[in-house]
What does this fold into?
Amino acid sequence: MEAFTRAIRCDCLRMIHDAKSGHPGGACSCVDILAVLYKKVLNVPLEWDKAVDFNERDRFVLSKGHASTALYATLAHCGYFSKDLLSGFRKLGSKLQGHPSSRTKLPGIEVSTGSLGQGLSIAVGIALALRLDKINSKVFVLMGDGEMQEGSVWESLMNANAKKLDNLVVIIDKNRLQIDGLVDEVKSLEPLDEKFKAFGFDVYEIDGHNYEQIESILLEAKKSNKLTAIIANTIKGKGVSFMENNPSWHGKAPNDEELKKALEELNVK
Amino acid sequence: MLSKNQTAASPRNCYGEKLVELGAKNPDIVVLDADLSCSTQTCKFAKAYPERFFNCGIAEQDMMTTAAGLAYCGKTVFASTFAMFATARCLDQIRNTICYSKLNVKIVATHGGITVGEDGASHQALEDISYMRSIPDMKVIVPADCTEVNDVIEYAANTKGPMYIRIPRTNLKQIFDPEVYRFNPSMGVKLRDGKDLTIVSNGETLFEVLEAAKMLHEVGIEADVLHYPVVKPFYHTALKESAIKTKRVVVVENHSVIGGLGSAVCESLSQYAPSKVYRIGIKDTFGQSGEQRQLMEFYGLTDKKIYEKIIKFMDVK
It folds into this structure.
């Protein structure tokens, strides 16, 4: 798994470097979660929409759409589409838009995201539809912690509880940083776990870079028939020393030298 | 196609009843509301099919993205609230999620326009068509009577993609004979033939325009009256042919003169048949409290006011 996530992080940084723009910090913080999700947890057919059991798949919504490179690289490394496509990221005519777009019909992308605070609500709608259709699969949504400052998120948490959804798992990539600095300093969310509990969620707190923990809690959440929130404590820019915990790497591309240094670090570890 | 019977009926009732009828035939229809189901009349569907009705509470942003999720899974989703709250408040959700993903969500907004009445400016949506018209892949439809509301809702249920359908709070006088008239989603409809000017309208002002056209006829001015229920996409042909003939166009709408049907008409004519255009609507201002008819009168949207304005316009060389 470590080699797998290293390769994904390297591709994220290459894509952002080549595109001269993108979001390395928030991508690197959620790579481990995404890798475990797609490798060990989600039931999503590789043949994507051609699969006979396509409707029965688990659904995944990347609410923090700016971490698109992490999702694209994970999907490519899992085999949903060719890794060759990754080099098109953010380029004219590419299926790999800056933020995920369902319009480009890239296998693995469920819905368009990018404007923060909407993925959870989309996931609630999907969960309601699955329940109506008696489809027994789960909806996973990955949000950023900064994103939870959007008021619409709390509308959706309220709705998930009010509608007694038992097929929704909310994962928070809690990297503690947003563009302007620490989430705690810009507009604190604490106590986040208590807030989730008050909204009717079973809450788990994990180390978002510990594969065993991620896997065991996600699998438990998948089996559970209660609303579940997983607060994953992560490090923004994880894996690259000069990016880690540095908000200036939220939305900046590494130059040639920085990329070289970053890839060396990732490959050495 | 015009009806002899001009009885007024509630388009909201009509919408609610139509949803129940369609819901019986199509199990994939689901309906969402944001705590206004009695006003929008989606309560009828809620009563008939409680498992397919989702009240999202006073949370319009959440309603629109929840609608998106349901639509993504193959549901035909109707989401309703007042036009004021169905557009501006959740514009980002409508643009970035519903329209960008081309999802099958029908936003049926009631209480459009100045005729919301006593609630005043905070509840009078005068810019909603402007917002909706500017989003790619959004269809915008403003039916003019209950015959048309019925047809439009059925069309919406049977046609994929995002739509914004605006109906007023007021009762609408019957314009179209339900035995004869069928809503056509891809054309403007000529309702009266004249050579002196073209009047374009839709929604609740269409009835007023037809009455104004009769008054104009009394003084020897013959108007082409065009009904444009579909504001977007805009179908140019009927307007172009009429404007080439009359060279003068008046647009009447229960909406701001910025961004609505008047703007759509100007955009079309500037390309296909440059003409003198007079836009009658709410002139870039907020509304106010008042009775429905008083407000129509105050903002110049009654038959008599429209007639007077057109008489003046005809004097302009």
Notes: Chain A touches chain B at residues 101-103, 110-115, 118, 121-130, 132-133, 151-152, 155-156, 158-159, 162-163 (CB under 8 Å). DSSP finds nine helices and seven strands in chain A.
